[in-house]
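A favour between colleagues. Tell me how you read the following sequence-structure pair.

===
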Amino acid sequence: MLLYLPAEGGGRRVGLTVSRKVGGAVVRNRVKRWLREAVRHEVGALRAGCDVVLIARASAATAGADALRTQVGRAFRRVR
């Protein structure tokens, strides 16, 4: 899930939230690493002056890194 708001200035800020509903500590950390990597690759699709929060759902643990990267890119393009 993605939440966004227009922000003052021209920067882009992205926050990540992965709750315990996703899994144990090892699984949560893995999902956070996958999301950080997806954001790193797809941040160019996000318009400037936008604050974004990505909230991982339980299905993110089984989706895999490539699926998350695709979904993050699609969500960033929809925000634009």
